[in-house]
Design a protein that fits this description.
Elements (H helix, E strand, L loop, with lengths): L8 E4 L2 H4 L2 H15 L4 E5 L16 H14 E2 L2 E9 L5 E8 L7 E2 L5 E4 L2 E4 L6
Helix pairs in contact: 2-3
Length: about 130
């Protein structure tokens, strides 16, 4: 696995999905921007600053299923696939969410906003870009 975020890989702490609705809304933006470019992967459980999961971190199937279901309700025209639970060499667990590219339609958040991936950042699309 790459150690740095780029145009197709994003790292997010597990706290992002356990902190409530704001975390999921932020992840939905990431899903949409990846889908509107070439797709990609969101690694949940590894913060982009530390590059490793906390040693005691445990990921359950319930966490994954709830995350995927919540994200699907916050994104339209986004193919979201859950990866397997993985264990880092330090014993901490993490998982990936695979985002398929949206080839025949424009992906949006549930509130109708469009985002694009530019480098390792998600940016709101302006009408003239569409």
């Amino acid at each position: 696995m790459t150690k740095n975020e780029n145009n197709v890989i994003e790292f997010k702490s597990l706290k992002k999905i356990t902190s409530g609705d704001a975390g999921f809304r932020d992840l939905a933006v990431t899903c949409v921007c990846l889908a509107n470019t070439q797709g990609g992967k969101i690694v949940i459980g590894i913060d982009d600053k530390t590059k490793v999961p906390p040693q005691e971190q445990v990921v359950t199937d319930e966490i994954i299923n709830n995350s995927i279901n919540r994200l699907r309700s916050l994104c339209f025209n986004v193919g979201i696939v859950a990866g397997d639970i993985e264990t880092h060499e330090n014993g901490g667990q993490f998982f990936s969410i695979i985002i398929q590219p949206s080839l025949k339609s424009i992906a949006t958040t549930s509130d109708g906003k469009i985002y694009l991936r530019i480098g390792d950042q998600c940016q709101a699309a302006r009408r003239r870009r569409i």
